Amino acid sequence: MSKKIKVMIVDDSLPFRSILSSVLQGNDQIEVVATAYNGNMALNRIKENNPDVITLDYEMPDMNGLETLKILHEKHPNIGVIMLSAMTTESASITMEAINAGADDFLVKSYDGKSREENIELIKKNLSKKIIRCFDKKHNLRTYVGQLGDDTKEMGPLGGTKKEHVEADLDDNKKKWNLSTKPISLITIGFMQSHIGIFIEEMKKLHLKKGVPIIVYIKMPESFLRSFVENLKPKVNASLKILDDGDTLLPRIIYFVNGYNQNIRFEEGDKIKIHLEKSEKDLSEDAFFKATGVLTKSRMAAFLTAENVFTPGILGLKELKSKDNLTFLLYTKSYKEEDVKLVENSYSQIASSVIIPMKMASTINGLTSAAGSNP
Questions:
Q1: Measuring CA to CA, how many Å separate 106 from each of 15, 331, 372?
Q2: Residue 22 lies inside a defined structural domain of this protein
Q3: Are 162 and 48 contained in the same domain?
Q4: Which of 68, 183, 208, 287 is the most buried (most CB within 10 A)?
Q5: In 10 A of CB 234, how many CB atoms?
Q6: pTM score of the predicted model
Q7: Do 292 and 256 belong together in one domain?
């Protein structure tokens, strides 16, 4: 990275502003350029400090985080925003409202049962990564979108394919993927929390014409996941459900599985049954995709947001592809036109296709409308 990512910390607690500043000082890719104790002060300091990313607390005097976010989203859309939230049901609902209002990501300030030192370590572990991802999403992905024109709805697969060519390309791929003789009967999606805004927009575009269940893997605190799903329900043309142990997968339902502290097992019969069990370890993206590999009667389409070849979930995706499933990398980096074939070739053992995240919905719609899909 040629320049440091400029960060503004907005929080009414002086000790917490100090903690965040201290945590970020150790990262040579990040520079804290300003702090503020409420939204008014933050907005007044933007012109002078020109931050790339703002960490924004919700509970502040005079102007709270949500009010500040709405102004930021309208007047400074190029600035990334990471909401900071307490781990309560009320805070989870507010945070999901903030995501809907344009926040790029969120970070829990404190976890129940953890000491102050443990919470600081968790912040230290996660905050820098989230800031870098937020910056990349705002700038690298935006740069790539800019190559295709002003209207992001016109954006096609990686490589600059325009909208008018996408349907023809999808029809050609349908023949190559043998969808008429080997239809898709399950769709799995692994999506980064840092790209949750894009995920919401893609969910709004889904039109599931055939009876295919979808399972979404995501990692977030349980109260946040519940609020996220409740907020998403009125926006999606499908039923939404958080997976429970013993669930049988039904068509036209989008299920969510939390990666925190549990394992998953798939049982194949007339319908697919899910077994979940509590665990001290998290369910990784790779383990999630590999767990579906036991489904020999079902052909799957698996989607994964990927930043690079080391993205968690790549190995699971590769294993699925080797078993004649369709796998898709939703690539979040920008590339020059001449680099595209190199990128696609480097992933040929992993992905049936490399697309950008904003084409996930149209790809799923195409797959589920293909002749021969399960009714």
A1: 20, 21, 41
A2: yes
A3: no
A4: 68
A5: 7
A6: 0.80
A7: yes
| Residue 320: burial class (beta carbons within 10 Å; 0-12, 13-18, 19+) | buried
Pairwise CA distance, residues 293 & 323, whole Å = 8
Q: How far apart are CA 312 and CA 331, in angstroms?
A: 13
Closest CA to 356 of 171, 65, 147: 147
- pLDDT of 134: 87
Q: What range does the domain containing 114 cover? A: 5-147
* pLDDT for 68 beyond 60: yes
Q: Does 71 map to a domain?
A: yes
- Asked if 157 and 341 touch (Cβ cutoff 8 Å), the reply is no
Q: Which two tokens stand for residue 43?
A: 């907005």
Residues 136 and 166 in one domain: no
Considering only CA atoms, which of 2, 22, 25, 20 is closest in space to residue 10?
A: 20
Q: How many residues does the chain have?
A: 375
**Which pLDDT score is estimated for 30?**
95
User: Is residue 18's pLDDT more than 70?
Assistant: yes
Mean pLDDT computed over 326-339: 68
Classify residue 21: in a domain, yes or no: yes
